[in-house]
Amino acid sequence: LGGYALALQRLGRWKEAEPLLAERLRATKERLGERHPDALDSLHDYAGIALALGDSHRAMFSYAKAHRLRSEVLGEHHPDALDSFSALVPAIAKVGAIKNARAFSKQALELSRETLGDRHPQTLVSLTNRADLLMALGRRLEAEPLYEEALRFRREVLGERHPSTLMSQSKYGRVIHLLGDALAAEPILEEASRLL
Hints:
196 residues
C-alpha cells in the first residue's frame, strides 16, 4: 500500500496517492501506535501530499506533529526529526506566517549543519528551503549564495547529473538571471536544461 502510494506521489499523481497514504497512516497508527517510527514516516508522507494538493494548513499541522513526535521519540537532532522540521518551513510560508517561516528555516538550517554537516543531503534540503523562502520574499541577494552553496555541495556529493543537482543548478541560474546577470545565467541554465 505504502510503496504504491509513494510511487504515485513521485509521479505527481497526488490525488490518487492521498487516500492510500491516509489509509496507510490510519492502519500504521492502529497497528503500531502513533509514536512508532513507521507511523511517524506515514504522517510525514501524508503531510507532503497535503502540501502538494494545496492544503497548507493540514500540511503544516501534520509536519508540526511529525516533527514534535519524531523529536520526542528519536531525538531533536535525528535526521528524520530534522527532515520534518525543514519540511515544515514551506507549509508555514504557504499559510502566510512568513515571520515564523523565516525563523524556522534559519533554525532548521543551523540544526542540520550542526548535527549532520554542510554536505549532508538533509542539510542541503534545509539550505534550499531557506533560499526558496528568501526568493519568495524578494530577497534575491540573500538567496543567491545559499543556492550557490547548495549547487556546489550537491555537485560534490551527488554528481553533476543527479536530479537534485540539476534542480539546484536551475535555481542558481534563475536567481543570477533575476539579479541582472543574464550573460552569467545563460550557460548555467542551458547546461541544466540539456542534462535534464
